[in-house]
Amino acid sequence: MHPCWTQVLTLLQVILVDDKSTDLHLQAAFIDNHLGLLPKVKIIHNPKRVGLVVSRMNGFRMAKAPIVIFLDAHTEVNAGWLEPTLAELARDPNQILQPFVDGIDTMTLEYNAPSVYHKGAFSWDLRWVLFMVVQTRFK
What we know:
By secondary structure, the chain is of the alpha+beta class. 24% of the residues lie in helices and 17% in strands.
């Protein structure tokens, strides 16, 4: 298990939703026998493949904590990711946060610092659009 997950395990619970994966290493028995041994991990097995949104909602319904964070299977958090996230939510608990996705060089696997920051929002016709954020905020 990645060391950054130890921060997550200090929370109330971790909910893993299995969307009826067909990958051998993600079959229900494997998940239950490995991740099911962790005391704060609750595993939900969808009876059939229902997709990302329904799977997230199934997990959300099981959540007992006042703050819910969704991490997809391809997500890897970095050291110190949780504290600023919780601090931002404490500043304004009615917001929805979306993480910044680091650019990673495909040849060297080094992080690439972004040259432009964006903030996302829904337009009136419900399209997700990005707006450039003033750089001085991040200096």
